[in-house]
Amino acid sequence: MPKAYISGVAMNVPDRVVTNDDLVTEFGIDTNDDWIVQRTGIKERRFAPAGVGASDLALPAAQRAIERAQLDPDDIDIILFGTLSPEYAFPGSGVLLQQKLGLRETPAMDLRNACSFFLYALGTGASMIEAGAVKNVLVVGSEIHSAGLDLTTRGRNVATIFGDGAGAVVLSATDEDRGVRRWKLGADGRYAEALAQRVWDTRARPFIPQDADGNGIVSPELMWAQMDGKKVYKHATTIMSRALRELVATERLTVDDLDLVLFHQANMRINQAVQAELGLPDEKVPHSISRYGNTTAATIPMLLAECVEAGRVQKGMKVAMVAFGSGFTWGAALVDW
Length: 337
Ligand code: UT7
Fold this sequence. Notes:
Elements: E1 3-12, E2 17-19, H1 20-25, H2 33-40, E3 44-46, H3 54-68, E4 78-82, H4 94-100, E5 108-110, H5 117-130, E6 136-143, H6 156-159, E7 165-174, E8 179-187, E9 195-196, H7 220-223, E10 226-227, H8 229-250, E11 260-263, H9 268-278, H10 289-292, H11 299-309, E12 318-325, E13 329-336
Parallel strand pairs: 4-5, 4-6, 11-12
Antiparallel strand pairs: 1-7, 2-3, 6-7, 8-13, 9-10, 12-13
Helix pairs in contact: 3-4, 8-9
The structure holds oxa(dethia)-CoA (UT7).
Oxa(dethia)-CoA binds next to helix 2, helix 6 and helix 8.
């Protein structure tokens, strides 16, 4: 049976840096650098200009990941795309990226797993490769959060923590004994509304409220993402450490056997709590949250790209990844690099 290894990885972020102070001075939000840094570890994030969609931000990351895998776009057998800030409600952004890559009929599938996208996509792509159905899978997470944030004091508990960014990996078939070794996913739909954007509701007629003239009207609570931060925090800290422990146990390993652990970059406080619970030393746990904020579907491939570029990932290393987010959904994976 072939195995699936990561043959290329790359990231892309917009040029515009928005610091915590900029949120106060440019956007007029009643917040401050201390509050944001202490609660989340975020110092700055990137915002894309109007006109740039999730597939646009994804394109350079996807192209570079394909190049680094020493492939051409035509070699990609399927695109797995993840975003919670797509250009359209439907179709998904995967087909838009497919066109921008110059591909004609390559299949493109959107996975709607928000912060856990990368783990869900890694499991899906690796399974397709192991089944012999495909040889090269492009996995891309890309977010244009800046378009969907309530950048006012009313929205500050959410708006201050998200940023724009894209990360891509290519998964390729190999006969070598390396690559994705184990993955484990989870979900608990009881908490679907603890972190959600409910801009429409197909149970209602019409699905978006209308005024007397038939124009759609969306209240701020429906237009902008809503989050029960304390609920997310509590579940994220317990579930991420459990997911990682269970993952390594199924491989008869312990957390100490891991060389590098990539956490979803949602919140530095959450990650520090999980790191401490697992007893992981700082050198095994890289972070990028301070520079990019939470880029949801893109955090892990972005962090992986930085680690590979910095030479922190070497062949033979055991690299684990773990994420938790909206749904609630979560996932963990172990990769033999
Ligand atoms: O992928 C998953 C992504 N989500 C997360 O990772 C979020 C997890 N949750 C958290 O990290 C925390 O719950 C937050 C950082 C979001 C919020 O921290 P908290 O300690 O739970 O704050 P809170 O919501 O209980 O609010 C405390 C105070 C409130 O003021 P009052 O009512 O005490 O006067 C808020 O209005 O902090 C206020 N507040 C802010 N103040 C300055 C909320 N957001 C801000 C802000 N700046 N950005």
